[in-house]
Amino acid sequence: MGFWQIINEKGWYFLTSLLGGWPATVTVAVGSLVFALFIGLIIALLRLSNWRVLRILSTAYVEIFRGTPALVQLFVIYFGLPDVGLEPSPFQAAIIGLGLNGAAYMSEIYRAGIESIHRGQMEAALTLGMTPIRAMRYVVLPQALRTMLPPITSFAIVLLKDTSLVFAVGVVEIMALTRNLVTETLQSAPIYIMAGLLYLCMTIPLSRFAARLERQRQAWQ
Amino acid sequence: MFDLPQIYAENIQRWLPELLYYSLTTLKIALVSFILAIVIGVFLALLRISSVRSLRLFATGFIEIIRGLPIVVLLYIVYFVPPQLFPELDWRWFSDFTGAVIGLGLHGGAILAEVFRSGIEALHKGQREAALTLGMTPTQSMTYIIFPQATRIVLPPVANYAIGLLKDTSLCSLIGVNELMNDAKGIAFADYQPMAVFVLVAAIYFAMSYPLSLAVRHLELKLNISR
Question: Which end of chain A is less enclosed by CB atoms within 10 A, N or C?
Fold first, then answer.
């Protein structure tokens, strides 16, 4: 059977089957993004801390998570943790794994954002009697957000693409269904291309959005 | 009771030589796809700045599509789709290794094309015009004036890409290439020691990528000073 004939006969079935994995893909992407935004901020603040030990520990965290593949990290969490008595579900492992990995990258984005705000701002806020945490929360971070928004959007796109790894720890998302469907029908060409198009439908609009944010940021400066 | 040092003491002599042997495959994939990525990247970057509109559009679209695809999906498409689309051709030469290298090379090419283009565009247009005014041909001005200067600008991002690539080779295990990650899976599940094996593998990847990232940092400092 020719390529187009298969698309004609089975295309709708393929598409609806693959779309069944879309909620799982989005859940993992959003879950790990929230996780990474939160942990990343903590790591970034620890790296700016006055305590040497905290600085060293947080730097080590970033180096280790950036120096090893996300797939290995996912495997350590999903297959390794049961050895020490923890049994994360596939979803938990995926969100924690991509989240911890993403936190290392997010912390660098936060750090660059915080460092882009002049020190005088922090000093002024402290002089006005704010605590360091309040100064960070109400003075530095809101201003840094403008610089950080474009890289955060790019990071979200990378994270969305990385969710295609989590089928390896058993999450039934788009890529897992793609592989199942290929095993079922043996039509690898149309199915893998369709999966690719599904990802493009999500990533290309997001990357257009990121490019627009970046242009706006440059116009402000 | 889970005792990591004890497990390593008992098994490391068996595990480490095998894992290190397969890290060579990982390095080989990384090296070959790095070279391919540079070739594709230069080619796409030249198309992107070409004066022919249709070539520019083609390159832009191609780069956007490749960059929008997850690497895993790209690897599956490159490895499984062509043999099914053209079954009449001879595909015996097309091993999983070749598929992996082409997939990673295409992905890297799309990333590096943007790096190279911004490197070339970062140089003032006057440089090229001055070279042409001095009687150089466009090829000569590219070879002797633009390229040497652009190299310095693109070196840090290219090195950063290389670090990412080294880690991305672990994805080739998903299409069945016998590299470090795939071998680790085999050992981990055969010996029922996933934690110990995957932590060891993480350490091996770290030992390969960390020296590279220290080198990049050194390079960035050095290039900044000399400018």
Answer: C
